[in-house]
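Fold it.
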Amino acid sequence: MKIERRALEGLEVKSRTIIGRPVVYNSRSEDLGGFVEVIAPHAFRESMGRDIRALIEHDPSKLIGRTSSGTLRVKEDSQGILVEIDPPNTRTADELLESIQRKDISGMSFGFSVPSGGDHWDVEQAPALRTVNAALLHEVTITALPAYKATDVSIAMRSLEQHQGEKPVDHTLNNLLQFIEVNSL
């Protein structure tokens, strides 16, 4: 499965714990390159017992928490997914905490994969609407770019192409996704 990423705003620090909401249910995304997306309530229900990682900017080398170690706590409520992250005592984490406190960084993102039949496409409307009904959450990330920007749009556009039966054009991006998928399981 390919891992997709989406970004949202809303992040705070309490002591050294980072608190945020990387997923908001029933919230329409920006145009992701010919379609918009909605995550249905409880779409990540199957992920709640999985080992999920917390990263900085989707970079697996910048791991700041993990559910299996207890340094990342993931909770689902009626609005979406909430997280609490206890980052390590490192220079990178200290700089991240300061950037969040200064509001230089205010967003979160998430990486996920959709099993066959886990989404529904309404291509009759413009832009097309993708509703994700069932997916696996692989990672949450702290990001300085909380909107659906270049990288997220490129990944999302490939999702639309795959739905329509087209092959991805950007093989570099495809290789990166395969690397992330293999390394985050």
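The longest helix spans residues 150-163.
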